[in-house]
Amino acid sequence: MQLRQWQRGAVDAFYAADSENFLVSATPGAGKTKFSLYLARDLLQRGVVDRIAVVAPSDNLRIQWAEEASSAGLALYPVAPGDSDGYTKAGYIGCVVTYQQLLGTGGSLMRHAMRRRTFVILDEVHHAGDNKSWGDALRTAVEPAVHRLCLTGTPWRRDATSPIPFVRYDADGTVAVDYAYEYGAAVADGVCRRIEFHAYDGEARWTDPARVRRSTIEENGKSDVSVEFTAKLGANMADEDVSAALDTVYEPKYAWMPSILAQADAMLAEVREDVPDAAGLVVAERQWLAQGYADLLHQITGTRPPVVVSDPKADPGSRIARSQIEQFRKGTGRWIVAVKMISEGVDIPRLAVGVYASKTQTPLFYRQVVGRFVRTRPNEEINARLIIPAVPELMRHAREIEEELRHQLEIAAEEDKKAREEGPDASGQGMLDFRTPLSASESVFDRAILQGDEVSAEELAAAQTKAHELGIPRAYAVNLVPLLRAQASQAQVVATTQPVPQASAAEIPHYRREKMLRQAVETLARKVAYRRRIQPKDINIELLRAGHPKRGKATVEELEAMLKTLTGWAGES
Predict the structure, then answer these.
(1) 170 FRET partner, CA 20 to 30 A, in 7, 72, 250, 517?
(2) Are strands 384-389 and 195-200 parallel, antiparallel or unpaired?
């Protein structure tokens, strides 16, 4: 695993601290997951720990961590709610659970699993302060761990009622970070995109029967008179007026949102001239508003975008929403609309344009949304764009982020200047040595390298031809190679009647491979039972007599052996 400069620095700082608890604050998209898994693997190899446990804030991140760990050579089992065996499942080096799962028996099961030396990763640890019960459950569950690595990509303030376990606070209540890698440094290093904030003003008019001016009561002697209010978004207003104004402009039937979405789609069209699969995200306040925005985008683009929501009643575990997000992540669609679903940890690097249509004004949520647009991809030099209402508080958050960036770029420029003055023989390296300057973007795109893969001359020539057909600058043709490869692969599949080749065992996450094997064993056992004209339970008995373990407790290797035995029986019957 090749680490970035900040990741190497964080690993060194972890070992230097030699502490049970270590907090890393790194901007979204910087690579906290990769850093954490590298450290976990290193601790295992050094013999410091025997097991790994990850606690994540949501179900989709639970799955995502398991898959990322598999890619890093660590088999972590994503424990489903109610699965009491998953915490210490045979054949895995550890498990991934959510903070919610640690309430009740899950916390006891996790603590029991830590009888062996365990390294715990607490992803987006600020969620442990969402309520006191979460924090208490987390503290009890993972207190026996040898080391606890706390991660966050967003700032938070101390909550006197729900302090976050395993993090230190200064005297003034500010969280003490052990290693920080902020947005400004990430942009300066070329790790994250720069984001442009486009603020739009507008006038809102509304009535509020619950609020009546004192003068109205005095004049009419009534308290049920409805009063009309008018305000500009950019004006200084009371909090309840800001909420009412946003409720008004966010209505799909009024002029503000249709005009905003039209502007946003025009921005996306510009970006897609350089990056054909670039996408846009609308963050909505309510489900019915999200559906209205999807209708508007359908009118603008001719295609209705997917709408994803986090609604456990309508979709237990949000499985459908996760599937929609995954399809969108791998696809080329223009827009997706979300309600509190696409937040921290959701990785869709092609997102480049956003519309902030939420009433939430906290810096935590705002930066979570910003974090969806800053992830970079090789061979791309674009600025992301986020459209926001010109509400003073949201504008202040945007200015703070821009100030962080300006300050860090000034530091980077000073470092670069110093390195040039000292000459090539000077010791040390300037900060800019590890990033791609914007002025060199065309030369980067001209290089026949794409995401670490060699691009053949034929592929590059085909991409340049396609770019000419689409009116895309020749320097950006390399961005079309994945699309052409996908089209060629799809055409090959359609043209043949042979089964689609399956991914190799090394490419399939460990837990998915187990699930596939378990299903295969189940299917084949039923076939053998049918051919022998006996009950499936009798096949299970024969498998036990043949020396195989119970199917529910079997590891991947034991399932493979079981499948081999069943294959032999199927050939005999």
Answers:
(1) 7
(2) parallel
